[in-house]
Amino acid sequence: MPEVVGIRFRPAGKIYYFDPGEFSLEPEQRVIVETTRGMEHGEVVIGNREVEEGEIVSPLKPVLRLATPADERQVEANRRKEGEAFGICLDKIAAHKLPMKLINVEYNFDNSKIIFYFTADGRVDFRELVRDLASVFKTRIELRQIGVRDEAKMLGGLGTCGRTLCCCSFLGDFSPVSIRMAKEQNLSLNPAKISGLCGRLMCCLRYEADVYKEARARLPKEGCRVKTSEGRGKVIGVNALKESVMVRLHEGGAPVEFPVEKVKRER
Q: What is the per-residue DSSP string for 70-130?
């Protein structure tokens, strides 16, 4: 099995595998690696380990060296230049009257490319903008349109729970989230209560979805008839976390809660 190291290029970013070569690397070490975008500065999050062939995309790019103090200064200089580039791009967008919102600017480590991230409601013809930016920065320019979830990940913020957004604190990838997950957890279907800052369904709806799904598979469905120690009745509610059901034994009577093991479904 090939030996790899896992490297991340931004906080809570996706983890990419690289060939460590002769290096024995530990988490939190900074390294310079070769990527399809050129040389990049990244942080080791997974030390040397062997993985299955199916987990990697061949060929693996190599780790070139451990980052030096000069490399760290280069990274800081790039961050400052990104701020300047952001302002220049805003002016150019306004001059061309383009319907787009600039979100972030990213220099790669060796300054061979600058990526401008933006959002827009539809397709944007930014060819003239690219030419203008290339004439100013004298390097390769890429404009990349992103979605609202990526926008929230880049800009950050606080969720309704009061904590930093999951997407910009630890989520490396976005997973699909559906309204069905909210239904299975008996959450309010009010969009204002189950949507994040991005306007999409909150990522955290997925965290316990499998637990609720497994629990509900063991519980009788609402509306089905069951036998209990107190007689026959109809299930009018379920509590997946407590693994209990609310049963109405008599028409008009108050429901009674039973543990799932105390009820038997009628056929």
A: HHHHHHHHHHHHHHHHHHHHHHHHHHHT-S-EEEEEEE-TTSSEEEEEEE-SS----HHHH
Report the C-alpha gap between 33 and 207 in whole angstroms.
33
With 0-12 / 13-18 / 19 or more C-beta atoms within 10 angstroms meaning exposed / middle / buried, residue 256 is middle
* Res. 203 pLDDT band, cuts 50 70 90: very high
Letter string b/e over residues 56-91, b meaning 16 or more CB atoms within 10 A of that residue's CB: beeebbebeeebeeebeebeeebeeebeebeeebee
pTM over 0.70: yes
CB 9 within 8 A of CB 61: no
Separation CA 13–CA 6 (nearest Å): 11
Query: For residue 154, with 0-12 CB atoms within 10 Å meaning exposed, 13-18 middle and 19 or more buried, which class applies?
Result: middle
| Rounded (to 5) percent helix, strand, coil in the chain | 30, 30, 40
Question: Kindly report the CA angle at 261 between 255 and 264, in degrees rounded to 5?
Answer: 70
Strand duo 38-50 + 30-35: pairing: antiparallel
Count of Cβ atoms closer than 10 Å to residue 37 Cβ: 16
Tokens found for residue 149: 């979830």
Tokens of 42: 């990244």
Residue 255, classified by CB atoms within 10 Å of its CB into exposed (0-12), middle (13-18) or buried (19+), is middle
Provide the pLDDT for residue 33.
93
pLDDT digits (tens, 9 = 90+) for 53-86: 888 887 889 999 999 999 999 999 999 999 999 9
Q: How far apart are CA 85 and CA 142, in angstroms?
A: 13
How many Cα atoms within 13 Å fall on the side-chain side of residue 10?
Answer: 19
Which two structure tokens, joined as six digits, stand for 48?
């040397």
User: What is the four-CA torsion angle of 258, 260, 261, 265, rounded to 10 degrees?
Assistant: 100
